[in-house]
Write a structure and sequence with these properties.
about 160 residues; two-stranded antiparallel sheet
């Protein structure tokens, strides 16, 4: 069920977006900081982008997803997923979908699994650093809050500028 977005706020020329307290901006900063070490290690040596790596993680966690399911799972743009899959032909393979022959199921190739396994220790280490930054009860609340925010963002279909 899609929710109706509130009307676009009126903004004066003097008004400034409070990036220091904006959830959208701060989540983006966190994502950039988490991704920064990737570029120094994997990205530089493999030519794989951070979003390619995130796609590989999604496929490793849910082998056989269709492209539409990948779009829903990751929040990536549909055309970007298609382009990424083409660019990752060494790491992913497409097969007829077991349920819907109109779709293709996406799996990692041996090279995809090899890259995933090679990078997994670093991913788990960085994950643990973030987990260790919060006490267990706060971490549980954060995960709950994060799930709610992701669910809310999945409901967005347009932006206020698109409504005009």
């Amino acid at each position: 069920m899609k929710r109706t977005l509130p009307a676009s706020p009126r903004v004066s020329r003097a008004q400034v977006f409070d990036a220091d307290n904006a959830i959208t901006f701060q989540v983006s900063v966190l994502s950039n900081l988490i991704g920064r070490p990737f570029y120094a290690s994997v990205g530089r040596h493999t030519g794989i982008s951070l979003n390619d790596w995130r796609l590989i993680i999604a496929i490793a966690n849910h082998p056989g997803m269709s492209q539409a399911e990948i779009v829903d799972y990751t929040g990536f743009n549909k055309s970007n997923v298609s382009r990424q899959l083409n660019n990752l032909s060494r790491y992913v393979r497409l097969e007829p979908h077991p349920v819907d022959r109109r779709k293709q199921a996406v799996y990692l190739t041996d090279a995809g699994w090899s890259t995933y396994r090679k990078m997994l220790p670093s991913l788990l280490w960085r994950q643990q650093l973030l987990v260790d930054a919060l006490p267990p009860d706060e971490l549980a609340r954060f995960r709950s809050t994060l799930r709610k925010l992701v669910a809310a963002a999945r409901q967005w279909s347009v932006t206020p500028a698109d409504e005009k």
